[in-house]
Model the fold of this input.
Amino acid sequence: MSNGTPGIPARTAQPVSPARVAVVGQAGRDLVLRVAGIPDAGVSAVVSERIERLGGKGASIAVGIRQLDPAAQVSLIAVLGEDGDGTEMLREAASHGLDTRHVVRRGVTALLTDVVADGGVRRLLEHIPEQALLTPDDVRAATALTTADAVVLQLQQPFDTLLVAAQLTRQRPANGAPRALLVLDGAVDATEDRAGRDELVGFADVVRANAREASMLSGSEVRNREDALRTAETLRDLGPRVVALTVDDAELIAWPGDHVFLPHERTRTVDPTGAGDAFVAALTTALLSGASPREAGQRATQAAGASVQRLGGHPRLRRLSPDRKGSMLPSTHLPSTDGETLA
Done:
């Protein structure tokens, strides 16, 4: 163990460059429609703006990480259809610099429709065929899971697939490579048994969820900051070092021995769709760069605040500023409670 901290294996390898990140999650075609107001039943609305591009939470997180760290090798593990949309979305993913070798082609491409009215009011309509979801065999074939410095699991995938992905992430090569930073985003289906959910959370180093998702993961309702703190401790007791929960108008970042509530950026909300994906991308990138949980949470909150000022969930993030050591070199180390990395 490192520094006597439970659950954290010794990390003796030096930082490597570039960072290798694998993102497991949904990919598809985003259709964003802007209207003056959400129409009532039986009433039409004029669309004033329309955007079609690569979408899905997995793809958006992967693109965000690549934008924040252009040197990173980011592998997208997802499914796109064997149709024209799938070919177009795969081409767009590659244009963002993503490694698409582990994108499976089958069936019909998922369609994710975001109808946004003035004031940031939105409706999400999703067509995600069963074939558009990852299977355990899909992730077993993704070699990036066993070589990445960080793995992000976006939890809107079948539970069996997620559990296999987490297990593979923890199976490091025999050459003694350090364990990856494993980040969970969202929540699994509430019908999964408690033991299964706890096992998945126990594999993670970092868990990020909104209040509803945190309730699904922990089994306890999150209504206010006190609930969020208790839930964060419940989740941390299962194994994660860092827990980030959205509650009220703030982000709770909790780590061993301390926590902070970071207020949301005071910005005009055009579309809140991409806030969570931007948060996860920035949190992951910051932790890999050696930032403390507090610093990583601040960067993530800023990224989320920037994303809501634009229409659609597709990220448009700027590279993170250098950390206090003047280096953007990634590290496989998690920060310790005092902000220094665990050696």
